Amino acid sequence: MMLSFEDDPITAPTDDLSPLEKLPPEVRAAFLRLNDRYQQFLGLMLSGKPDETIRQVLKIPSAGAFWTLRSRALAKLKEEVEKIRSTKGGQA
Amino acid sequence: MSEQDKDLAAFEEYLFSFMNDATPSTPLTNEEVVAILQNYGPPEEVSSEEKEQIVKLMKEAHGRRMEIARKMQNPGLIHSLGEFLKLFCEWRHIPAAWLARLLNLTEEQFEVHRKDRLSPVELGKDRILNLAALAGIKIQDMVAIIDKTIKLLQLKPTTNFAAAYTRVYKEATESELLKVRDDAMKELLLKLDEPNETVQPEKSWESLRHELLQEGAKEISLLAETNQCLTIRDKSRRKFITSVLQQI
């Protein structure tokens, strides 16, 4: 019996989306407005990387600095999402 | 825990809820996401019709993306070089002019190849090798795609029978139009008899094909050698580490 495209491991469609692509449009647009460091941090966090790996990749010196960066990045993202939700596409 | 911390924890949970969901939410490019927001406004104000439109867009984009990924992962599903060039540009989100520049072609020349109107032999060995390297596919796969394209460009032998069919038809109803069509068919058959018209491109493709496959074989042996070197290096490194450990 011939395998269908969906059954064949070579041709089967796979979910190759990045964490960013799984977010709803308004969160994704807000994400794009963050600075590079916040984007990298949240991208790694949403990919499910362990805290230790994130610290190594972003060269965060201490656990305290890690938690500060985490709360600042989340707060900034939340703020941008709220801005977008309150105005058309986040435009003032 | 302060109120702000609770808010952030809830927001984090909200973000992770999308990560665990197996179905993709927004399989769109960044530009498309921004365009949707600018065209439709904040999500709370989006009407049900607009939501339907967004979902339709997302489904189309996702379906197309999956189809392209499937074809690029399995080049046997691609029917011609033109289709390959179109898919590659779409897959990598690159403009045709950019790829044309990379392959050292003018935009017009690239367009002709993209529409499968010219034999891929005209591209030459170096460009074909460059294209395979850019797309990250095996040279053997690229040769198979070009084989299919060459077959598409050749006149099919069944064309020989078309004249007889026209003549029978002509006997039934004579008309000026049929006369013209018959003459055109005669001209076409005369061209088919000329050896230069059809045989030459096949010959040059055969030699180019051979050269390309040789390059492919070289690539495979080089890869095998590299792997062998890496294994040897790993082994000697392990040996060195073991000897150092034994000394300690």
Give a verbal description of the structure.
The complex is a heterodimer of chains A (about 90) and B (about 250). Chain A has helices spanning about 20, 25-30, 35-45, 50-55, 65-85. With about 90 residues, chain A is mostly helical. The model of chain A has no long low-confidence stretch (mean pLDDT about 80). Chain B has about 250 residues and is mainly α. Chain B has helices at about 5-20, 30-40, 50-75, 80-90, 95-100, 105-115, 125-135, 140-155, 160-170, 175-195, 195-245. In chain B, helix 3 crosses helix 4, helix 8 (about 140-155) packs antiparallel against helix 11 and helix 9 (about 160-170) runs antiparallel to helix 10 (about 175-195). Chains A and B meet through helix 1, helix 2 and helix 5 of A and helix 1, helix 2 and helix 3 of B.
Features:
heterodimer; A: 92 residues; mainly alpha; globular; B: 248 residues
Summarize the structure.
The complex is a heterodimer of chains A (92) and B (248). Chain A is mainly α.
Please write the string of helix (H) and strand (E) elements of chain B.
Answer: HHHHHHHHHHH
- On the 0 to 100 scale, the average pLDDT of chain A is 78
* Computed Rg of chain B: 29 Å
C-alpha Rg of chain A, in Å?
18 Å
Low-confidence stretches of chain B: none
Outline of chain B, from the CA principal axes?
flat
Largest sheet entry of chain B = none
Number of helices of chain B: 11
Structural class of chain A: mainly alpha
Biggest sheet layout of chain A: none
Q: Please tally the β strands of chain A and state the result.
A: 0
Number of strands of chain B: 0
Shape of chain A: globular
Query: Distance between the terminal alpha carbons of chain A, to the nearest Å?
Result: 60 Å
Distance separating the two termini of chain B? 51 Å
Name the helicity range of chain B.
over 70%
Question: Strand portion of chain B, in percent?
Answer: under 5%
Largest interface (CB within 8 Å) is between: A-B, 35 and 35 residues
Mean pLDDT of chain B: 75
Main structural class of chain B: mainly alpha
